[in-house]
Design brief:
Blueprint lengths: L1 E5 L7 H10 L4 E7 L18 E4 L7 E5 L3 H12 L6 E8 L11 H11 L4 E7 L7 H17 L5 E8 L8 E4 L6 E10 L5 E10 L11 H6 L2 E8 L5 H12 L3
Parallel strand pairs: 1-2, 1-5, 2-4, 5-6, 6-7, 8-11
Antiparallel strand pairs: 3-4, 7-11, 9-10
Helix pairs in contact: 1-4, 2-3
This protein binds manganese (II) ion.
Length: 257
Amino acid sequence: MRILVCNDDGISSKGIIELAKSMSRIGEVVVAAPDEERSAIGHAITLHKPLRIEPVKLHDVDIEAYSINGTPADCVKIGVDVIMKRKVDLVISGINRGPNLGTDVLYSGTVSAAIEGCILGIPSVAISLVSYKSDDFSYAGEVAVEVAQKLLEHGLPKGALLNVNVPAVPKEEIRGIKVARLGIRRYAETYIKRLDPRGRPYYWLTGEAIDTSQEDMQLDTDIFAVKENYVAVTPIHLDLTLYSFMDAVKEWFNKGQ
Ligand code: MN
């Protein structure tokens, strides 16, 4: 089995090395990841500058790896097409430093890499550790292997991928795996205004997730699951069409005709 490993934290992040190590237990791994951090870049791709593929030696492991001056979606596209010559059985992205829960999957480069795999017709998974501080990706690596094995055993519907979030607590405190829907992630966001050395104002977005609203914390959401120390597994799909509203919109345009 040939596995493409990608992320959005960059080729030298600890999470991707742990993921590559874990996945090498079940298949032949190739790492293709951005040369620097591209978190929150969403599904951007590079059209107006050349992309370069640089072979790199990963810290502490002997796994084929490439650094690319592009986005996570670029890395999967070029990784599948050029590096792996379209022979890829699984795309797995992560292990992200920090959660990718609820509506944040739309901003996430980690999830976008998996989405790109899905667009290319390859079974794909995104995996994140719910902490910006923890350096211990080992349990999340075990989860990645378990999820990949289940996925390859059972398959995924067309246009679907799995998004996985692992609480950053000791393994003994994990209560199990919960299949959960995406919640709604809200932030108390502020643009901090400062002055640059030339006296001109600039703005920097800052904010923390609010996890108190009852609506966001419904029991079946991924946000609630990780708060309760469950690993959250969410099947997501790419068809954003709101089928239940289509007839109503058709009516708008039929009126008076
Ligand atoms: Mn990231």
